[in-house]
Amino acid sequence: MDFLDKTYYGNSVLSYLLAVLLFIVLYTAIRIFRKIVLKRLHKWSEGTESTFDDFIVRMVERSVLPLLVFMAFYISVTNLNLSDRLEKVLRAVSVVVITFFALRLLISAIRYFIESKITKLDNSEAKLKQVKGIMTIITIVIWILGFVFLLDNFGYDITALVTGLGIGGIAIALAAQNILGDLFNYFVIFFDRPFEVGDFIIIDDKKGSVEAIGIKTSRIRSITGEQLVVANSDLSSSRVHNFKRMEKRRALFRLGVTYQTSFESLKIIPTIIKDIVLENADVEFDRAHFFEYGAFSLNFEVVYFIYGADYVKYMDIQQSINLRIFEEFSKRGIEFAYPTQTLFMANNKE
Q1: Domain span at 285
Q2: Staple partner for 232: which of 124, 182, 290, 307, CB 3.0–4.6 Å?
Q3: Same domain, 110 and 81
Q4: For 311-332, what is each residue's pLDDT tens digit?
């Protein structure tokens, strides 16, 4: 028993053994909680439709349990008589560890709530890829704030640091205003959603499908095959035509017949065209009119609507209409006009 009463660094051997025993008991309790309670909670969460309980169980396993292990170590060590220097070191380590797991839990919570909102939207897979850029920025900001918080807890005067960061931030903002402008417009595009990955858009004289929306630039695959890289600021300041969200397409075309066409044929042409247009599915007829006397033709204007945004579908329908008009006009002897000139010659007799 004399061995247990021996003192080393202000604590007896018995005190060290009791501290180790306390840590073993607390660690065993944590392991039992993980093996029994947490395992059952994990199985229960897998059987529910909600993802929130899965998130809670995952956070307990990844952040809370490691923190509890450290707290068990901290409680065991604090039962010993420690020097002032060791107490300060242990307190500093505990602040760092608690801050680390708290920030990790905060970042995970923000990521979960953002992703849970996005998964309820259309084209969620593409949006989840865009979230990575946003989460990178949020993560950097949170870790910087956590670092400043640690410095403040360690007794450092962070007033000068914050002032320096503010002045440095202004300088960086002035030097990189174009980059920051693209970054800000990335958030505008992400939350306002004027277009999404996969949408077919037209910007000025450029057109194509959106392949990716990055933090600074977005990439568009043009109809001729090359990839267009456009700054987000240019996209936000431009008039963007988004054809994917078009519920129905307005189609207008004109045709001309010769001046030799009879009056009765002119009267029935609008009806012929209307019947031909309505032969196609997903089509809404609007109008067909004899609208002008041309230089060499009698001109008709036709307007109809196609449900859907598929351009190939529109062209297939327009082709079908053109072929049927040609067929019907041929049967009825109605001739299409083309540029012609008639020369009248007078025979002046002396």
Answers
A1: 248-332
A2: 182
A3: yes
A4: 889 999 999 999 999 999 999 9
